Amino acid sequence: MSPVPDAKVTSAKLFLPSRRAAAVLAVLGVAAASAGLFLRYGIIQNSVIGVACEAGEESLTCKVRLAVILMFVKGIFGWVALAAACVQLWRPNVVAFGTGMVFAVFGLLLYNTRISALAVALLVLSLARPASLER
Questions:
Q1: Which of 107, 123, 111 is nearest to 25 (CA)?
Q2: What's the pLDDT tens digit per position in 24-83?
Q3: What is the Rg, in whole angstroms, of the alpha carbon atoms belonging to the chain?
Q4: Per-residue pLDDT tens for 101-134?
């Protein structure tokens, strides 16, 4: 006699954003990549702006430049992306995925590549997790 399990075996539905959420995530990804590229090549690596800011100019561009430089020196982009990716891996939801994706894109473009790459790997892994039952 073979034992018959009492409970039905059901496959859990994997985390997959809806079409609307996927469209919003795509727009957020493109916007983050555009902003990251502008910050990197338009402000941080622009020698004219760099010389002006180092000479003591106090403009919004110099303040943004300094803030972004401090954030990538401290690894803020990578660590926030990693934290959001861990939350996404633990409890899959669209907000954690979007936050991790945006900060990982910023981190990859703004010199936090190692930690951000780990966050991207965890985000990809999280797509194989079952969706949370709470909605």
A1: 123
A2: 999 999 999 999 999 999 999 999 999 999 999 999 999 999 999 999 999 999 999 999
A3: 20
A4: 999 999 999 999 999 999 999 999 999 888 765 5
Domains of the chain: total: 1
Q: Phi first, then psi: give them for residue 130, nearest 5 degrees.
A: -65, 145
- Note whether 83 and 122 are within 8 A (CB): no
Q: Which two tokens stand for residue 48?
A: 């004219």
**11 occurs within a structural domain:** no
Residue 35 forms part of a structural domain = yes
Tokens of 52: 């002006």
Range of the structural domain that residue 71 is part of: 24-126
15 part of a folded domain: no
